Amino acid sequence: MGDQLAFRLWVVWTGEGRLAVEAAVSVACWCDTDHTTHDVDAFRLLVDEENSLPGAFRARAERLTGWLADPGDADHWRTRAGLPTRRPR
User: Fold this and answer.
1) 34-39 long-range contacts, Cβ below 8 Å, gap at least 24?
2) Residue 86 to residues 2, 6, 24, 41, 63: CA-CA distances in angstroms?
3) What is the secondary structure of the chain as a DSSP string?
4) For the chain, which terminus, N or C, has the lower number of CB atoms within 10 Å?
5) What is the pTM of this model?
6) pLDDT digit string (tens) for 17-61?
7) pLDDT digits (tens, 9 = 90+) for 67-76
8) Interatomic CA distance for residues 3 and 21, integer angstroms
């Protein structure tokens, strides 16, 4: 499996039937037990009376933009989250 660093922004229905906007950074898993990926930073904002869908999307997009300003190295994010860094081959 190759390395992975993914930045995601999406609109979802929650288990409670509410609309939310989520943003996340995920990396490939290098744990002894393969979890496939880990979300190392994630935020969910529910759409409600205080947060419109456009407002929630804009807030999560701004968070995503901030993440993109951080280093684009997956090991940086693993270290930040306390996960094992990539094993040497």
Assistant:
1) 37/4, 37/6, 38/78, 38/81, 38/83
2) 10, 16, 20, 18, 26
3) ----EEEEEEEEE-TTS-EEEEEEEEEE--SSS--SEEEEEEEEEE-SSSS-HHHHHHHHHHHHHHHHTS---HHHHHHHHTPPPPPP-
4) C
5) 0.81
6) 999 999 999 998 888 888 889 999 999 999 999 999 999 999 999
7) 999 888 898 8
8) 26
The tokens of 83 are what? 């996960």
Give the Cα separation of 59 and 45 in Å (integer).
8
| Residue 56 contacts residue 20 (beta carbons within 8 Å) | yes
